[in-house]
Specification:
Layout: H1 3-19, H2 23-36, H3 41-53, H4 57-69, H5 76-88, H6 92-104, H7 110-117, H8 127-146, H9 164-167, H10 175-188, E1 206-212, H11 219-230, E2 236-242, H12 250-257, H13 259-262, E3 264-268, H14 273-281, E4 287-290, H15 297-300, E5 310-313, E6 328-332, E7 347-351, H16 369-372, E8 377-379, H17 392-401, E9 406-410, H18 417-428, E10 436-439, H19 444-453, E11 456-458, H20 467-472, E12 479-480, H21 491-499, H22 510-521, H23 526-539, H24 544-558
Parallel strand pairs: 1-2, 1-4, 2-3, 4-5, 5-6, 6-7, 8-9, 8-11, 9-10, 11-12
């Protein structure tokens, strides 16, 4: 059989296996095809896609770089797939060079060019890398904010993911850069300037809308559903706006089916941007409440419009927006430092309590008292993109100081960051890496029970715990925290204040953090857990005083 015929036969077999999702077998046949047709574009494309499906990123990268080196007319897909690899693996500098080459060879469309220019990693290999990338990205954003001829995109068909979210985890002040990003977004979407403002606010009751993609199985639902349910419907007309991308879940079903019981109205917004705007404006809102700006691409660009008399954001994503159409940021006296107003582009509102009504967690199968009193078991339950390289020293020193310590982390959904973090840790603690374990993600009740079995929970430095802490108080497991001067690093400390814990494990430096963790993990901790749980049930869970406080705040905004 001639080489061309053999190559065709192997390629067809590879396609059959690819279509049935047997990617390993597909790889075998595509690799055989390349032996006879080494420059075949369809084979190079499908082999690289097969590697991506099995997460063999190094092999995929090698094939795609070879594909690009051939400088073929049909290699645009190679650039796009390599972009996906570099963005998934947080390869900032490689992606920057790829983008430069793609622009020179006209391989990226205007959307991909803008997406690449606005790429920022969500994980770093070292503190030095954080610094270098942040400096480079900041200069790039300042330059883009001054450009007059940025490519424009369509709001209904081509939304760029707001990069502000990733910027929240690297430890820097984001006020200035978020303002610059807002200027860039306005240039990319000039259509935003064509929407008129809402002006008619003569309502008998205060109309308030809560808008989020995450009124589902998500922290945002946990934090804000109680406020939606409990707010006084004799004073407020309440609308809950959902994204058409909101994931189905028991929680999403709950908030929709409880509309009659709690007196709110649910609205699932259109996929079309203009129709979203029309739908929200038609409700003639006094207040539009965005719990989590920067988290939803689908809803983010609505925040750049005036859709209500007052527009508010809060601690669902605890970061200032830099957006002059967001009037207020709702925080708490328990969470902020002196002169905190300087950190926000919004007018800061400080509630008396944590701004939520958090329902008591429910557990049907509880752990034993023996499990509740485990020693030497440390757990950092935060998403791995929250773990700044500066936190690695804590892990190293805990393992050195407590020779019985075992430290638990949780894998990310695609097991990309967990592998990257494991490699990062292995470089600094090769002798103790066997005492690090990465668990699969757990169901809600399993997760709460895991927190109960843990001796001590580790709060990450620059962006700490929120929902996890609230759930962990079902068993009262202490979380050691080192607050920063920014809201995103102060939530655990604020929760302890509301719980009236006088000697809470809140520390000011790394050494004290390590000492407190080791102390708690090596003592009989059952009584302390019971005390924390008691205080949480008294002061943290289902705090109706917080609802009344927020009602007064909302009324004051529209008087």
């Amino acid at each position: 059989m001639e080489k061309s015929e053999q190559a065709k036969k192997n390629f067809e077999e590879g396609i059959k296996f690819f279509q049935t999702k047997d990617f390993k077998q597909a790889q075998i046949y595509f690799e055989k095809t390349l032996e006879d047709a080494p420059n075949s574009s369809p084979t190079l494309e499908n082999l690289s896609k097969s590697y991506l499906e099995t997460r063999d990123y190094n092999k995929a990268e090698k094939i795609l770089k070879y594909f690009i080196s051939l400088e073929k007319e049909d290699d645009q897909i190679a650039y796009e797939l390599l972009y996906d690899i570099y963005s998934s693996l947080n390869k900032y500098w490689e992606l920057k060079e790829l983008t430069k080459k793609a622009i020179e060879r006209k391989k990226f469309d205007k959307s991909k060019i803008l997406q690449a220019k606005l790429f920022y990693p969500n994980f770093f290999s070292s503190e030095e890398e954080v610094k270098k990338i942040r400096e480079d990205f900041t200069m790039k954003i300042e330059k883009l904010a001054k450009e007059f001829n940025l490519e424009s995109l369509d709001l209904s068909s081509n939304l760029l993911k707001p990069i502000n979210f990733e910027l929240s985890y690297d430890g820097y002040d984001n006020l200035k850069i978020n303002k610059n990003l807002n200027e860039i977004y306005k240039k990319i979407y000039p259509e935003l300037q064509s929407f008129g403002t809402s002006t008619n606010y003569s309502n008998k009751k205060i109309k308030i809308g809560f808008i989020s993609q995450f009124f589902s199985n998500h922290t945002i639902m946990m934090f804000f559903k109680g406020l939606i349910y409990k707010i006084n419907k004799d004073i407020f007309d309440v609308y809950v706006f959902h994204s058409n991308f909101t994931l189905p879940s028991a929680e999403f079903t709950e908030i929709n089916e409880s509309a009659v019981l709690y007196g709110h109205q649910n609205i699932i917004l259109s996929s079309n941007f203009k129709e979203k705007v029309i739908e929200i404006k038609s409700k003639n809102l006094d207040i539009l409440f965005y719990p989590d700006i920067h988290m939803s691409t689908n809803l983010y660009y609505l925040t750049m419009l005036r859709l209500a008399k007052c527009q508010i954001t809060s601690w669902g994503h605890p970061e200032t927006t830099g957006n002059n159409n967001i009037d207020y940021f709702l925080s708490s006296k328990l969470l902020e430092t002196k002169e905190c107003e300087k950190k926000y582009s919004e007018n800061l509102i400080l509630s008396e309590y944590l701004p939520m009504y958090f329902y008591e967690p429910k557990v049907t199968k509880k752990i034993s008292l023996e499990e509740l009193n485990n020693k030497n078991l440390y757990s950092c339950t935060q998403s791995l993109f929250k773990i700044h390289p500066s936190f690695d020293l804590v892990i190293k020193k805990i393992l050195q100081k407590d020779r019985k310590a075992k430290i638990i982390f949780f894998k990310d959904r695609k097991d990309i960051l967990s592998k990257m973090y494991y490699e990062r840790l292995k470089k600094i603690i090769p002798e103790n890496i066997d005492r690090i374990e990465f668990l699969e993600r757990l169901k809600p009740e399993e997760f709460i029970n895991h927190c109960g079995k843990t001796s001590v929970l580790l709060d990450t430095f620059w962006f700490g715990s929120g929902n996890t802490f609230m759930k962990s108080m079902y068993y009262g497991t202490p979380t050691v925290t080192k607050p920063t001067s920014y809201l995103r690093g102060r939530i655990v400390a604020g929760a302890y204040k509301q719980m009236k814990i006088d000697e809470a494990p809140v520390v000011n430096n790394i050494d004290d953090y390590i000492d407190k963790c080791v102390e708690l993990a090596n003592k009989n901790i059952l009584d302390l857990k019971m005390y924390y749980k008691e205080q949480a049930y008294k002061h943290l869970f289902e705090n109706y005083k917080a609802v009344k406080d927020l009602e007064n705040i909302f009324k004051s905004l529209v008087d």
